[in-house]
User: What shape does this take?
Amino acid sequence: MATELVAARLMIRNAAAELDLRDPRAPVLCAMAKRFASDVGFSLANDALQPHGGHGYLKDFPAERHVRDLRVHQILEGTNEIIRVIIAREMFRQ
Ligand SMILES: Cc1cc2nc3c(=O)[nH]c(=O)nc-3n(C[C@H](O)[C@H](O)[C@H](O)COP(=O)(O)OP(=O)(O)OC[C@H]3O[C@@H](n4cnc5c(N)ncnc54)[C@H](O)[C@@H]3O)c2cc1C
Assistant: This one.
């Protein structure tokens, strides 16, 4: 989980650095970073909830809030399906 978190952070920071440099690849790198980090974030929160068993699902503990808060990032600012479409278009652009 820690490894995936580091990988997601590196993708975000790399995309941000390319954006600062006004690299023409920046938009697709940002799309890749958004898709990857939001999917990894949700997966990690979901995995972190599991060892808490049924209690992890209850509002009494913060784990369920983390799962909900990360789930929405797969939908917001361009759903991850649409982000995939954007990345694919860029990959096949002549
Ligand atoms: C809590 C919350 C806060 C929000 N805040 C904001 C905000 O601040 N600013 C803002 O602009 N919007 C905001 N939104 C709206 C959000 O951006 C939209 O919900 C999001 O863009 C998805 O649009 P939609 O809900 O109309 O889903 P739809 O466009 O109806 O899509 C439904 C599903 O079909 C999939 N889908 C659609 N077309 C394709 C396709 N061609 N190929 C594959 N899959 C496809 C989508 O990925 C999605 O899974 C918010 C939404 C929520 C839930």
